[in-house]
Amino acid sequence: MTKSHILALLLAVSAPALSACATAGSQISAEAAAAHQAAQTEVARLTAQANQDPLLKPWTGPHGGVPPWDQARVELLAPALELGLALQEAEIQVIATNPAAPTFDNTIVPMQDAGRHIDRATTIFGVMTDNVSTPAVQEVEAEWSPRITAAYNAITFNRALFQRIDTLYQTRTTLGLTAEQLRLLERTRDQFVRAGAAATPEQQARLGAINEELSSKFADFGRRLLADENTAIYITNRRDLAGLPPNIVAALAAAAAERGRPGEWAVVNTRSSVDPFLTFSTNRALRQRVWTAFKNRGDNGDANDTNGIIAEILALRAERAQILGFPTHAHLRMADTMAGTPERAQDLMMRVWPAAVARVHEEVRDMQAIADRQRANITIEPWDYNFYAEQVRRDRYNLDQNEVREYFELNNMVNGAFYMANQLYGLSFREITGTVPVFEENVRVFEVTDRDGSFQGLFYLDNFARAGKRSGAWMNTYRSHENFMGSEITPIASNNNNFVRGAPGEPILISLDDAQTLFHEFGHAIHYLVSTVNYPGLATTPRDYVEYPSQVHEHWVLSRPILDQFARHYRTNEPMPQALVDRINNASTFNQGYATVEYLSSALVDMSLHNRPEAITDVDAFERETLASLGMPREMAMRHRLPQFGHLFSSDAYSAGYYSYLWSEVMDADTWEMFEQTGNVFDPTVAAGMRNIILAPGNTTDRAEAYRQFRGRDPDVNALLRTRGFPTGESSEQR
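and the corresponding structure tokens:
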């Protein structure tokens, strides 16, 4: 609207003026209609182009369409991203310039439908950056991450679009919306406001610059960390393999051969390779070297050092929070969580921390006693912890992890996870590898069907570590469930692990911890595969809820039905004997001090780092001082030191949110006790509640209320303490 149009409206004081006003209004309507028509024309033009682009066009093939990995070449990424973002911008303009009064159907619904082409391209782009991060992919990521961020900033800061959303929000009680539609409207408006939609133009300009700069720094952090994780310590003398079981020796040999050094053994600088080495190697000097390399990722003062980038990220986050009206980045990130405030998260963590630290001191005394008995003439250091903890486990519980490992063959445990999903939720998995494209030759694909035989979705499984793949384990959603446009779209989920492959033809044996990781990530996939969410905007649950469904599924690894059918000895095919299970259960709280402190120290440092108005500048000093103030045992280190803390610095996702694993674990421990109390780990009534209340609805209802509906009360914090073997308190519910 021009200034002359505004003036014409203000002069409406007489009949002639009213006539002028009508004329001006007609002119405004004509301009609005013309802008709307122009946007529609642009959408049609760009859609025609995008439908010819292999990375943008609708997925074709079976099962509602599949990702075109056979056409996903790095040189196609940049043009696809450019065209896809232009199309999305035009789609948003169609909504924002609509001359009709805003309604749910002409504003919120098309917003949910916009951006489908760019969503397909960024899905492929994201999988490539995580799994096949070649220098060429990293180059595209460095250029396009800030450009993608800028495009989404433009949507958030589109004042005409936000005005339509806000108008609907202000009149929401009169719109006759369903509860689901009302929640979508309210959450959409809240998300826009938290991202700066209501800020001044000057503030929005700065927010946009901050977001773009952050996206560049996230990509740079990830590139540097990956470079350090792609290094390895090579062993050339077989004597330096002393203590390592044959399957681990074979895995190290395979890793060396993959890196062009056959006849040697490579301890790759990732957890899946380092942890077994630290547990079994009798070469203390080499343990120290491996541990130091692993814990110093990103902190070596070289081209891959991340300390400077982290300080810059923290400064940008602090500034952004203040512009948006939040006292700290932690308050901003926690505004849409179950915990709600940093104080509530801190309270839960500090309820557990003292008992965990006390347990670590007990564990160290036990380890030191064994070292003294062996006349090792050492004081326990961090690179000794896993090694001597394993000896205590053997001494006290007659439990050897290598003995347990022989029952956990990878393919058997994959089948065990599928069996769990079938018994709990009626899902069946049929392998269709070879019938659809994959991004790497070892990726497996499964068709998922429900109890009635109806198609439920696809599941991609990428199990193995390799160069160019980031460390850790995670779930990707290629496509979420929806049906708001009148036809059902079925989900596609993937699990990505970093198990170490052994010699060709040899069974791949994994640890109990690895098996639990497998079931954990599979729990994430189940969450999406059973989704009944209508609107994609309600698919994602709060950060401190999203880990709950995954963590609870870890418990089935040691359930008797899984053990009897799938945890069978790789040579004899005998099921794991109950005597061994009893020893595992007797040792279930063993080393929980270490596990809890390793995790909680990372979560507490994360919260302290982000729950402050001014950003810290010396990352290493802050880490040391915070740990000292917490009373961190000197015999161990954080699970993720700040220079390599990808959860915090490869995106905003887990920043001020690493506590969420503990928050979720309260619900998961409480839920597992519910199953155990029935006497049937596949109890159909509890399982139905899990599927229908906890998993399938996504975020269509408040998740705290959903848990109360499922459990009949708030979660019992004492369930977590009992699981970890810590003293319980009087208060029983997490509030």
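(Above: one complete record from the training split.) The chain has a mean pLDDT of 93.
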